[in-house]
Amino acid sequence: MKILTVTGYKPMEINIFKEDDPRITYIKAAITKRLIPLIEEGLEWILISGQMGIELWTAEVVLDLQQEYNVKLGIFPPFENQESRWPETIQEKYQMITTTADFYKPIYKGDYQGAFQFKAKNMWLADKSDACLLLMDSEYPGSTRFFYEIAKQVMEEQAIFIITPADLDDVVEEIRMADPDYWG
């Protein structure tokens, strides 16, 4: 596996409304835990569409991992200026990430034209990737279900990796247990 698409919830879908929400730390830790073994097995590219939430947090994880690993970040938004209606702090983060990424190219030129752009983005990412990593609860898939449905059509079942709520609980517990005060 050389190319992996990562996606998942937007922040509001998981009730995260501030960039300093402590749950983001756990989500990033879970993403890191899943990415490192894949990178060590030869993963070269991580692709995202750059949507806020899981994808931008993944981008931050990848940029951190690049200090130790030879992995590249590609960002393929569905259209130009997708961040234009986001909160200003997230727009600034998006701009920093897109300028730091190894590759950035919107799928469609120009601004938002219609929902077809999101479907085309999902198809393109699924088609260009060897596998995908989704942060998703199968009982409440939210907007992630759109990519998941396409991935199931295009990819082998074993190429679809999912970070579940139980996986997040495990990461939270691992981090808590790593704190010396936990045992005191």
From TrEMBL:
Pfam families: YpsA (PF06908). This is UPF0398 protein. Coiled coil: none annotated.
